Amino acid sequence: MNDGTGRVDLAFTVQDGAPRTVRVPPGVTVFDAASWNGIAIDSTCGGHGTCHKCKVRVLPVVEEGRSPVSKPPITRHDLKTFSREQLDDGWRLACLVNATRDLAVDVPPLTTRPKAATVGVGRQVILRPAIQKRYVELDEPSLTDQRTDLDRLLQAIDDLEPVPDLHLLRRLPTVLRAADFKVTAVVVDEALIDVEPGDTTKTQYAIAFDLGTTTVVATLLDVATGTPVAVASMLNRQQPFGGDVITRISATMMDPEALGRLQRAAAETLSTLALQVCTEGDVDPAHVYEVAIAGNATMTALLLGIDPEPLGVAPFIMSSPQPPDLLASELGLALHPRARATLFPALGAYVGGDIVAGMLASGMDRDKRTRLFIDVGTNCEIVLSDGDRILSTAAPAGPAFEGGAIRCGMRAADGAIEVVKLADDVELGVIGDVEPRGLCGSGLVDAVAELVKVGLLDASGRYVADDVAKEVAPALADRLTSLTSDRGEERIFVLHRPAPDAEPEDCVVLTQRDVRELQFAKAAISTGWTLLLEELRLEHRDVQQVLLAGSFGSYLSAASAVRIGLVPTLPVLRIVAAGNVAGEGAKMALLSIRERAGARALLEEVTYVELSDRAEFNDRFVDQLGF
Ligand code: FES
Q1: Fewest CB atoms within 10 A around its CB: which of 34, 66, 243, 393?
Q2: What is the pLDDT of residue 620?
């Protein structure tokens, strides 16, 4: 029953599998509910009501003492598919039954084995891409068979009901005749975009883009098998305009030409990567029929040439939550001329399409566990779900994690210290196994956590006095010293000396001010999840899993994150690196139109919580500053 949580229960019985009960928002079709949860139901039309294959037996669950409720309504497609007896018995087409109350669903064994792929955080996705190809051998027209070319083709692919576009109509007569009427129809979503000579069903490609502010990653996917063919990444070409979204928004406010230049820079980045993955995967770009792009709200606006200024100033308004679908060529991508581009929707100016993609990849809306998703970065996005409600917020963490505002901070590149262990000596893990040059975000968190552990930093985040240092960590005490710079004199801890007699200014050090920067960043983040936990009346221990996402979060040491209070106090096994979830979400959207619909449904399911206007924000922030 719809029990006030806004969900209904569907109890699936599957042959050769354990029974599964899934909770979904009311109104979702039985087919979608199954598909979202990795339960396979026969289908070739992907839930469009045209293939008549998704047969299931659906019975309403009747609570004890209540009168029986009627079976789901019978549609005209059900009438065409089932006998009267079967209909009375509860047989329906799963994609036409809306789950408005609790249901028991019997799923018969599959007649065709759907392919599935594991993507995201252990998500099993049943392949049903928007790209569909059908190879057909058509009868040649004659005086007794004068069907048009288009009718001939559409009648041969009757499990789909695509709409032809002009590009197709222009090519159709020539291609049909040149290929002896043996052709492959190319359908993307509802559109019949092309007809190719011969059987090309093996070449169906799409590209998933994670359009990050710093780094952009492209994955070329074979959507017929769900296999990634090639992956490439590069720095976003918008870098010269500034390292974060705010500086890029400011650039457009100061110079009317900047928006166009930023748009071109984003398009060039995507084009370069598209070409690179196609070359590497030995795939003709003309066989790429779709791209999916997951980016934050500012990156999405800039790519589309939409003025981002309202995103950067209070009250932080997006032009639209769901960008329209468009042609990849409109973004300057030289792929199939009619290839589609789909962009992820955003929940708010600071919880963008990258986070929606991340939620999809980590199944935040499908899991009954209480889970906390944290994408750590300059702007940190936090999502909390208790299995029924999903809340999200954004916390401005500042540039500390990206190495900004930190004396020896640097990006995670060769020479960056990424792991720090303190005992009788300093043990460092350095990217590229080279001489340490600086400290990246995970190294920063490790260094502070270890200094707290050995007692060289006190709970308020201050370096202890020399005599205390000698007592608590004698082997490390001489590394605690001072440095005078244009910022004045401050206490530092020397992590790496390039030579025994090197001056402090030539060493990789952690200054008192760096520690303060990290304290502010972590307090912003932990205030965010603390307020979300309070909203759902949950304690730290109720959180069953913390997903650390993003290029920085995924590399954090769980133990260090707990020690400094960046995440709730939990056993480290409950803290999981989620990886590049935005890119994974983009892949899922390409492999399954059901998943894509799931991403759009998140706009309705997730409540955005604005923290800055909360009366208790400042008190909580101060509480969270200490270690
Ligand atoms: S999935 Fe094809 S008719 Fe239901």
Answers
A1: 66
A2: 86
Q: Give the predicted TM-score (pTM) of the model.
A: 0.81
Query: Phi, psi (5° rounding) for residue 429?
Result: -105, 125
Helix (H) or strand (E) holding 353: helix 353-362
Residue with the two structure tokens 């056993």: 571
Q: How many angstroms separate the CA atoms of 245 and 397, rounded?
A: 13
- Ligand 1 centre distance from Cα of residue 30 (Å): 11
Spacing, Cα 96 to ligand 1 middle (Å): 8
Radius of gyration of the chain (CA): 28
Q: 3-class DSSP state for residue 276?
A: helix
Contacts of 469 (CB under 8 A, 6+ apart): 456, 463, 476, 477, 480
Residue among 412, 570, 421, 407 at smallest CA distance from 491? 407
Angle at 552 between CA 547 and CA 555, to 5 degrees: 70
Give the residue carrying structure tokens 């589609």.
340
Show the ligand 1 pocket: residues with CB < 6 angstroms.
31, 43, 45, 47-54, 93, 95
Beta bridge partners of 426: 422
CA 159 to ligand 1 center in whole angstroms: 9
Per-residue pLDDT of 344-397, as tens digits, reads 999 988 899 999 999 999 988 888 899 999 998 778 899 999 988 999 999 888
310 burial type by CB count under 10 A (0-12 exposed, 13-18 middle, 19+ buried): middle
